């Protein structure tokens, strides 16, 4: 038996930091979507548990017990084995939850392969604050430290371009650089009737991690300017703790056109185009 599991990129369309818990973790209010751009896992029954990592972004990704895929597998406790192959396409430490989405895809895949229930919510959260939202990828409002998943209104069709300049930005350093932690949450979410209406609404919201991320990696400013200047772009913003930024376009074709042009002018950057993804 072989199970395939897709690990889509997570995008924080907004990311408001609204407080801090006693343990140091920050309270968030974030509109999260996923893109049909991501890593691929293939899982097969085997005597032992093993992981191999290949693909264009495999370099530097741990293949031992530090890999979130193996940490996810460990949550099931002792049991049957599995040979897991991870085709790594998303840049790591990039604000698009690559490792978290891999962990969530491994949980879904192993539950299907082994006929087991998913581990409980606290165990899932112990893998990382972004793992709960990655378990059932789709547009949601995420609160708490990442464990509170609330429904979001249906999204209009739109295109997405993701751009990473090749600089890893460690998440803890970005949170540490925040000047204020008690920022305003998002207002009630309206019904967005088109990509343009969504982009206009998002323009009035924030990613509070952008200033400290830009202090860590000033190239983020260049990335945002390049996306904003691309044809058809309705909005350019940073996702998560960076450095990946995204552009919103009226549709997939416009995003693909912008990506072709940006790859030519910035051959060293990771540039992908797609559309929202729901499992
Ligand atoms: C910032 C976000 C927004 O979606 O995305 P990324 O930039 O990672 O993609 C996430 O909250 C990241 O989630 P994740 O990367 O799973 O975080 P974890 O591994 O649990 O924590 C890494 C570190 O980030 C900080 N952290 C994380 C989440 C949170 N709500 N408050 C925090 O302060 C803590 O310093 C923690 O030590
Ligand atoms: N499957 C994985 N893919 C990517 N990184 C992983 C994975 N497992 C563990 N890691 C580690 O997690 C760190 C954060 O990676 P990632 O989840 O991609 O960050 P972010 O949430 O900021 O996009 C990496 O620096 C890497 O060492």
Automatic annotation (TrEMBL):
Function according to Swiss-Prot or TrEMBL: Catalyzes the phosphorylation of the position 2 hydroxy group of 4-diphosphocytidyl-2C-methyl-D-erythritol.
Catalysed reactions, as listed in the record: 4-CDP-2-C-methyl-D-erythritol + ATP = 4-CDP-2-C-methyl-D-erythritol 2-phosphate + ADP + H(+)
Protein name (Swiss-Prot/TrEMBL): 4-diphosphocytidyl-2-C-methyl-D-erythritol kinase
Enzyme active site: 10, 130
Catalytic activity, EC: 2.7.1.148
Domain GHMP kinase C-terminal: 200-258
Pathway given in the UniProt record: Isoprenoid biosynthesis; isopentenyl diphosphate biosynthesis via DXP pathway; isopentenyl diphosphate from 1-deoxy-D-xylulose 5-phosphate: step 3/6
GO BP terms, alphabetized: isopentenyl diphosphate biosynthetic process, methylerythritol 4-phosphate pathway; terpenoid biosynthetic process
Keyword Nucleotide-binding: yes
Residue ranges of domain GHMP kinase N-terminal in the record: 67-127
Signal peptide: none
Family: Belongs to the GHMP kinase family. IspE subfamily.
Organism classification: Bacteria, Pseudomonadati, Pseudomonadota, Alphaproteobacteria, Rhodobacterales
Biological source species: Rhodovulum kholense
Keywords associated with the record: ATP-binding, Isoprene biosynthesis, Kinase, Nucleotide-binding, Transferase
Residues that, per the record, bind ATP: 91-101
GO molecular function: 4-(cytidine 5'-diphospho)-2-C-methyl-D-erythritol kinase activity; ATP binding
Gene: ispE
InterPro entries recorded: GHMP_kinase_C_dom, GHMP_kinase_C_sf, GHMP_kinase_N_dom, IspE, Ribosomal_Su5_D2-typ_SF, Ribsml_uS5_D2-typ_fold_subgr
